[in-house]
Specification:
Blueprint (H helix, E strand, L loop, with lengths): L14 H11 L7 H14 L2 E5 L2 H11 L7 E5 L4 H8 L4 E5 L21 E7 L8 H11 L2 E5 L7 E2 L2 E2 L6 E5 L12 E5 L5 H8 L5 H5 L19 H11 L2 H24 L3 E2 L14 E5 L2 H13 L15 H4 L8 H9 E4 L7 H19 L1
Parallel strand pairs: 2-3, 2-4, 4-5, 5-8
Antiparallel strand pairs: 1-9, 6-7, 8-9, 10-11, 11-12
The chain binds pyridoxal-5'-phosphate.
The site of pyridoxal-5'-phosphate has 14 residues, from helix 3 and helix 4.
């Protein structure tokens, strides 16, 4: 029996209506009607200023510029993350100092950071893996004590909390991704959250190619001029329109993803009790936002066998990340340290299909296959 269950399928409610409306308005470039609607939505959610960007990668590059990262500054971040977290700062000439993750969860371990801080350290970037909060009280205390800038790569973490506060509101800057694989998508897209209003004027300038065009549009300037560095960080209205359709159904999408997450967790528990897999350990201060569901296999070999087994049944599962401290780009330039947890998670994590349209029946087929795999390999 061969099923056909992909890892991800984007859910795009009302996208065609809104795209038609962009075409009818004849404003396809950035910062139009739908960009404003999206920014209003997120401004309301986060109670601060936000800018829609053409990717989370772009939003991270903006944070590096806004934080005035300069050559030879050191930036601490987890090794277990996507390349964009690091590239944004490498592009400014920074030296990346990779930190290990916690034993039980692939988030950066705040207790292992103090020893990495030097007089050159400028910023700490935390990544809320799978939308599960890092230990923010400890991180905030650490950056305050050392006078560092905290940046949250909240790519996974839309509408997720640490205690009763939204992730993305702790750092001086935070970024969210609307890539097709994330909870809500613009195709390619992202969000910059600016938590200090004093940074907002410069953020607008970087966003609009180094010009004061935003101030000009508000009638605050007679003409717009080149006033700083910048790039084209703003998305087209087409992307904003696609995203906006999901914002209109945001609660429903989140609810559905969280239900899927919980169903995986509850049904896979018996395998954890038998010691065959490990399920995500959610700390008491964190919430689940249904971004991704992973399980941890006992060995790298079992993980790879399980991917092949599922694929044989037409079920697509994936793994990530390859630890950045061992990547070809990094080891050519730096000595690499041992970051055991980061390596272990990258070898043993398996991500299961999770998307709005995944039916309960298909989800149960996936779970049944995982059970079957473990009975044939263990008995
Ligand atoms: C997806 C992702 C990014 C990049 O997002 P894009 O929107 O594709 O640029 C950055 N960091 C993390 C942790 C991610 O998962």
């Amino acid at each position: 029996m061969k099923y056909r269950i992909p890892y991800n399928v984007p859910y795009l409610p009302r996208a065609l209506d809104h795209l038609t409306s962009v075409v009818e308005r004849r404003q396809v470039s950035g910062h139009g009607y739908f960009t404003d609607r999206c920014q209003e939505f997120f401004g309301h959610l986060y109670q601060t200023d936000t800018l829609l960007t053409s990717s989370c990668t772009d939003a991270l590059e903006m944070t590096a510029l806004l934080a005035h990262i300069e050559p030879d500054d050191e930036v601490i971040m987890p090794s277990f993350t996507f390349t964009s977290t690091a590239n944004a700062f490498v592009l400014r000439g920074a030296r990346i100092i990779f930190a290990d993750t916690q034993d039980h969860y692939p988030n950066m371990d705040p207790d292992k950071l103090e020893e990495l801080i030097t007089p050159r350290t400028k910023a700490i970037v935390c990544v809320h893996y799978a939308g599960v909060a890092c230990e923010m009280d400890k991180l905030v205390a650490l950056v305050d004590h050392h006078g560092l800038i905290l940046i949250e790569d909240a790519a996974h973490a839309v509408s997720a909390y640490y205690k009763d506060r939204l992730l993305g509101t702790f750092g001086r800057f935070a970024t969210i991704s609307f890539h097709e694989t994330k909870n809500i998508t613009a195709g390619e897209g992202g969000l910059l959250i600016v938590n200090n209003p004093a940074d907002m004027d410069r953020a607008h300038i970087l966003w609009e190619k180094g010009t004061d065009r935003v101030a000009f549009h508000r009638g605050q300037k007679q003409k717009y001029k080149w006033v700083d560095v910048g790039s084209s960080f703003l998305p087209s209205e087409l992307n904003a329109a696609v995203l906006y359709g999901q914002l209109e159904s945001f609660e429903m999408i989140q609810q559905q993803r969280i239900e899927l997450w919980n169903h995986y967790y509850e049904r896979l528990l018996p395998l954890q009790e038998k010691g065959l897999i490990r399920l995500p350990v959610i700390p008491p201060y964190a919430t689940i936002n249904g971004h991704l569901f992973y399980l941890e296999c006992n060995t790298n070999g079992t993980r790879n066998d399980l991917i092949r087994y599922l694929s044989h049944y037409g079920i697509q599962s994936v793994f990530h990340y390859l630890p950045l401290h061992l990547s070809p780009f990094y080891i050519k330039r730096h000595d690499s340290r041992r970051l055991n947890n980061s390596v272990r998670f990258s070898e043993t994590i398996l991500r299961l299909p999770l998307y709005y349209d995944l039916s309960r029946e298909d989800q149960d087929l996936i779970i049944d296959c995982i059970f079957k795999f473990h009975t044939c390999t263990c008995t």
